[in-house]
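User: Fold this, then the next.

Assistant: Folding the first:
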Amino acid sequence: MAKLDGDTKAVLRDLNANQPLTGGDPDIAVVRRAYDEVFAAWTAPPARKTNETWIANCGMGENQQSLVIEPANVAPDPGALILIHGGGWSLGNALCYAPLGRWVCAETGRRVIVPDFPQAPETAAPAAYDALSGMLTWAASQYGQEISLMGDSAGGNLAAVLSNHPPSGLRIQKQVLLYPVLDLRPDAKYQSRKKFGQGRHFLTVDGIMGAATQYCDETGDPSSPLISPILETEFRETPPTTILIPEFDPLRDECLAYAERLRAKEVETQVIWAKGTIHGCASFNGRIRSGKEALLSACRGL
């Protein structure tokens, strides 16, 4: 039977000691600070120097901005890779995901854009999808039509929905989904959620469903494919897809089911396993070797 690797066990010890992040706090600002600190600190430094610029007025409405990261000293590949951050639609931001954006930029040579999209509970669905659709249109007007998407967890959910339903006139070239949450229905049942979502492997079932409830609020229907992409029936717009799945992730089974669904619809689909590790391993690639190796494999596809 597979076991958690040593890197992951050490990370779990530190996560469990972070009370606001894993134990919760009634003040969401406290939880957000704890999330930002961990997800910024545990990403490996980039192998090459990068440059970055903050850009406002990037198609997402007032008070929303994006971080544009480019390779230093060389021209980036055409177009852009949009990195949509995770955090249950309510945590995380472009600044705390900047280290991951720099790392991906250095490995791929791509221009990486990390948007600060509207979050719950301040704004519920479909605000994030609408804002990101506008941002993709803006990115295509600035950098050309070769737009690809990468997203982790809740960001992977948004990337999947945007890839299936891109803005009019834009076709996403490729998508990389890092352990996306794909089924937000309150009655969703997956064996991996039951097996790995009870508190020993970082992400919990209660955390998944609490984030989903907050994101949907009264305006989002969890039975809609615009909220739960695993319920999508039309994949005519969906690009070649890579899905990175940690072995001990509660989201494992829905990720596998989505890969099978894409293949059944003749969408080119690759599954990359992160052996012996947990949800979040791509952002923890400075500490979890298997997460770093899996993310490298995913980046090669870009």
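Now the next one, as you asked:
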Amino acid sequence: MSRIGKKPISIPQGVEVKIEGRKVITKGPKGELSFDLPSGIQFEIKDSNPPATLPSIGRAPAKIFLSPLEKTKKLFALWGTIRAIIAANIKGITEGYEKKLEIEGLGYRAQVEGGNLVLNVGFTHPVKIEVPERIKISVDKNIIIVSGIDKQLVSQIAAKIKKVKEPDPYKAKGIKYSGEVIKKKAGKKVVATTK
């Protein structure tokens, strides 16, 4: 039994969730995301309120329930993962996701040119990273902000930017996540030889 999978997902106000074939489509104030539901997982939307002539104010939101069709180890593992993906999609279309990266190093800088992020991080040439359509990148001094509605894509682009120049273990120069602590190594000590 998946502890995560059995938790229902609340559908916030202003969010529309529908299923077309095996595709789960979520629409919200920030955009639209879709996810292909694997076979073996059942998807159901239940209204928390019985039909009545009650005012809409104070009504509990509808909820998504997921369940495996068979009791197999593979489906139990998928159950929690799919629940997490759908919950992340709903959060993305309502709140969005953001990752911040810091650039450390003398002369290191970043700027957005056209549809590319241009990094000058100690190489002989600037490194260009193409910004996907659903991702927004902004630069504020030495901070790169990656934002978007797709959690997976935001994390993937942030990791790609960091990989260009990972922090040096001796001087901590490079690109790191905001708040990330880099463990510095002690440099080699020069020992004077005595004759």
